Amino acid sequence: xxxxxxxxxxxxxxxxxxxxxxxxxxxxxxxxxxxxxxxxxxxxxxxxxxxxxxxxxxxxxxxxxxxxxxxxxxxxxxxxxxxxxxxxxxxxxxxxxxxxxxxxxxxxxxxxxxxxxxxxxxxxxxxxxxxxxxxxxxxxxxxxxxxxxxxxxxxxxxxxxxxxxxxxxxxxxxxxxxxxxxxxxxxxxxxxxxxxxxxxxxxxxxxxxxxxxxxxxxxxxxxxxxxxxxxxxxxxxxxxxxxxxxxxxxxxxxxxxxxxxxxxxxxxxxxxxxxxxxxxxxxxxxxxxxxxxxxxxxxxxxxxxxxxxxxxxxxxxxxxxxxxxxxxxxxxxxxxxxx
Amino acid sequence: xxxxxxxxxxxxxxxxxxxxxxxxxxxxxxxxxxxxxxxxxxxxxxxxxxxxxxxxxxxxxxxxxxxxxxxxxxxxxxxxxxxxxxxxxxxxxxxxxxxxxxxxxxxxxxxxxxxxxxxxxxxxxxxxxxxxxxxxxxxxxxxxxxxxxxxxxxxxxxxxxxxxxxxxxxxxxxxxxxxxxxxxxxxxxxxxxxxxxxxxxxxxxxxxxxxxxxxxxxxxxxxxxxxxxxxxxxxxxxxxxxxxxxxxxxxxxxxxxxxxxxxxxxxxxxxxxxxxxxxxxxxxxxxxxxxxxxxxxxxxxxxxxxxxxxxxxxxxxxxxxxxxxxxxxxxxxxxxxxxxxxxxxxxxxxxxxxxxxxxxxxxxxxxxxxxxxxxxxxxxxxxxxxxxxxxxxxxxxxxxxxxxxxxxxxxxxxxxxxxxxxxxxxxxxxxxxxxxxxxxxxxxxxxxxxxxxxxxxxxxxxxxxxxxxxxxxxxxxxxxxxxxxxxxxxxxxxxxxxxxxxxxxxxxxxxxxxxxxxxxxxxxxxxxxxxxxxxxxxxxxxxxxxxxxxxxxx
Lengths: 339, 554
Fold this sequence. Notes:
The complex is a heterodimer of chains A (339) and B (554).
Chain A: H1 2-19, H2 23-32, H3 57-67, H4 80-83, H5 131-140, H6 150-167, H7 175-188, H8 195-200, H9 208-220, E1 236-238, H10 259-262, E2 270-272, H11 294-306, H12 312-323, E3 328-329, E4 332-333
Antiparallel strand pairs in A: 1-2, 3-4
Helix pairs in contact in A: 3-7, 5-7, 9-12, 11-12
Chain B: H1 2-26, H2 32-61, H3 68-85, H4 93-144, H5 152-170, H6 174-185, H7 197-204, H8 211-243, H9 246-357, H10 363-394, E1 403-405, H11 407-422, E2 428-432, E3 439-441, H12 443-459, E4 467-474, E5 477-483, H13 516-527, E6 530-536, E7 540-548
């Protein structure tokens, strides 16, 4: 009886502990959803995106409102959604548009906000290791949101959102809770049920061309960098391994890649390998948006990264495969308007 | 003195409690939760490092062909690193100083390792794709020239290169790697001693008619270069990653942290013992103070009780007096109404008789009635004088006005009056040995005293019993002794003998108002005199009066 009681108490304590997750635990819980490939097959270097995020819907709703509210910006004209239009695959469709860093080398191409939860680093140069750091920096960056100081930003948010923060389970509006609300929303922006994911889960059969495209993707060597759950986003690579990617073009600051951060010669032209999730609907491509079409991007990548001159049909097959990576957000295919 | 001691105790208690409270605020119990989580973090830092190495090895060996797991482990390490930045509050300055460089060394090792891991991922990606692409390129070149017998040396050279390159992968022994590298390092130089001549010629495009082969050879050589260059680089990276002293440095941090934790818990035990000691002392002082205060208040309570009972007793006396006064008043009303009504009815009846029969009555009888009326009126007037006198005395309004008085003529006159009043047949023995010269006395008061005593002596004794009146002097006082052989005064009436309207139980039908002796007493009190009485029932009464002479101040 005593043993049973001890067990009961232990269970209650464990449940009590489990019910109050710390941020670190949440983080670990998020990661634990990543499949353990060590004992899985080594055949598929790409994992399907989980269909559920398990995020608190109240916080997600609050984060969504904040994400598209221009009061976060200093002059009240810009919101996160200004550059990351959810109905346009998390970018501004067809535009290589960004304002930072604003210099004569032209803007960076805005990466999509979808599936950022599975990226290891953020920005083309991988400047930020966490979404929180990323958001904090972008909010205060005069070239981006220009929100001013926290002392200026928080009262604006508080006036409009104080009640909603409390309703979402936050104690109040603060730097930490504002960041957490938006980042929670960002983490919820995942696009499961891509045709390829369904293929991995044996729920759908891809066409012959698409499967050949996947084989080519692997055998040509794209898979070396574009792997994992996000088909990229977790490794750095030099733009131009086999050939000079900037041959015949003026190389500006923007093209220096991680060198801007580290100053190491080995980091010149090194960028974060972007995720290929939803790649078919997030043209243009590359950090400078210089590839207008998927085929153009595939051809150039094969040449400068892998030393291949891919024949047209091969490019078409790989493009067909890449189109199967377009997932769904809230049941609607990414890039398609809900209308 | 008790209050002082008690106050001091209270102050001691307050001061001790304040010190203890400061101790509570200032001292910190080493936070067990904090300690547990920090040391657990330090241990997981070591465990995670091992896991990272494992993931790197798996990735290198191709067991895992994506980097998500590596990234996940690294994120855990980064999160831990942030946690380790918050050194627990229990670590003292010495501990912090000792831990800081070790933490910094741990961080430096981590930063270095992070760079190495990122480089590993980058290089590994390139190497992997070339390792995959190289044999395919070789095979493509070989297949393309399969039908050409002249290309046999070309194919052989391809096979030789493939052999060398693949050997560096599967058996990266010093010799093979060295040989293959030498072959490729000279790729761009005119002499390529180690590279098969046919291949170099193809690469340079110097073999005429073999342009097609040039396109075939180029990817072979590019991928071979990648493999041969990056293979040892990746191996070096892996070996650097695995040998990064992250684990050892985390363990060094743990070591110095554990030392300072033990120091902190030891010193805090002593400090807490002191604080608890202070708390106990404060409680003891407080308790002593409370006891002292309780004792003090008990005493005060007893005092108050005593005062209250005294007051109560006084109140009782007061009440008794009030009640007596009330009784006195009712007696006064009863008495006066009776005493006044009798003479008034005498006057009334005599007046009515005179009105009705006065004409017919002889002169003698008329005069008799008129005299009765006059006597009654005089009696009432006397009684009224007596009452007023007592009233004045009780109100403290009786004034003493001494004048030179010759006692002999005064007493003689009083005796004459008494004889006239009671009739000559009553015997009065009168002796006067008072000084002949005048003495200072209030004659009026003295008359009240002596008239009343003499009249009482006659009134309460049989007609044949003699009354003795002796006047004398003693030092500076006149003495008067009035003796009778009358009915006497009962013992129970002695105490209230001089109260107004009190009449003795054996007074019977003897007329009287009960004012006489009260007037005597009041007069004597004003004069500062004294009266004493000896009496026996049925045998007689003896009043002794002493009246001091009053000296005139002038």
